[in-house]
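User: Reviewer 2 asked us to show a designed sequence for the structure in our supplementary figure. I'm pasting the structure tokens here. Could you produce the per-position amino acids so we can include them in the response letter?
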């Protein structure tokens, strides 16, 4: 009796692949948390990282000029809280309209969690920004970590994780992936260039953002569990027997 099998869609294959690598993911998360702890300790204690911060900032100031300054302003505006909130809200709305509530919740929780992390860690560390004379834009809040960097890393990352697998066409997915990787990097560099963050603030934004993003996706995968991709036995659909 012939059996027709169901081929899982690309997004389900992606979730399943992540699920199979949970032990390795857990190890990477532990290493990332340790790195965040060391970086925070270095900043809080005025360690060697702070001298590196000064050299990087001096180099950025020495290489300022148009059109780089204009580009940096545009990039930093695209990565600000308003833009990332709009992107996250639009993605949540898209999934809600499609009645994919699990993914809508995933995007919402991931984005909101990033915002909370920024506020809490800034208050705990209490680091001041670079001197006002070095800043090309006004920023009143504390410095560590970079909120623009952390926020863009998390929001663009979760949008990419949930939407890119649904794109049709290999090259479209490749381009979208490259943009998702390059954009948070550009946002972080723009913050140093504009003189509103130290290099270690931006490094912390990337690492904390990626750690939180990975944790959220991993928890989602565990909760979703084996439902993402059913086993061949479960998904097999027998054809009616001939009469």
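Assistant: Here is a per-position design you can include in the supplement:
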């Amino acid at each position: 009796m012939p059996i027709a099998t169901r081929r899982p869609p690309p997004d389900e294959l992606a979730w399943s692949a992540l699920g199979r690598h949970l032990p390795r993911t857990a190890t990477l998360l532990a290493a990332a948390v340790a790195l965040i702890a060391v970086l925070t300790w270095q900043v809080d204690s005025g360690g060697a990282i702070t001298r590196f911060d000064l050299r990087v900032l001096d180099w950025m100031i020495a290489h300022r000029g148009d059109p780089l300054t204009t580009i940096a302003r545009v990039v930093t505006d695209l990565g600000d809280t308003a833009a990332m909130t709009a992107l996250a809200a639009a993605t949540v709305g898209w999934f809600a309209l499609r009645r994919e509530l699990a993914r809508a919740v995933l995007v919402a929780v991931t984005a909101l969690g990033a915002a909370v992390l920024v506020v809490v860690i800034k208050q705990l560390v209490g680091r001041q920004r670079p001197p006002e004379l070095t800043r090309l834009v006004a920023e009143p809040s504390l410095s560590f970590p970079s909120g623009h960097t952390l926020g863009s890393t998390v929001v663009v990352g979760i949008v990419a994780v949930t939407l890119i697998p649904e794109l049709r066409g290999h090259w479209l997915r490749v381009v979208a992936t490259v943009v998702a990787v390059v954009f948070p990097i550009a946002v972080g560099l723009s913050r140093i260039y504009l003189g509103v963050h130290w290099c270690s603030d931006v490094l912390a934004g990337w690492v904390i953002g990626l750690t939180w993003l990975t944790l959220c996706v991993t928890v989602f995968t565990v909760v979703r569990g084996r439902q993402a991709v059913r086993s061949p036995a479960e998904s097999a659909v027998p054809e009616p027997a001939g009469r």
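For the response letter, you might also mention the following. Residues 6-237 form one domain. The longest helix spans residues 199-224.
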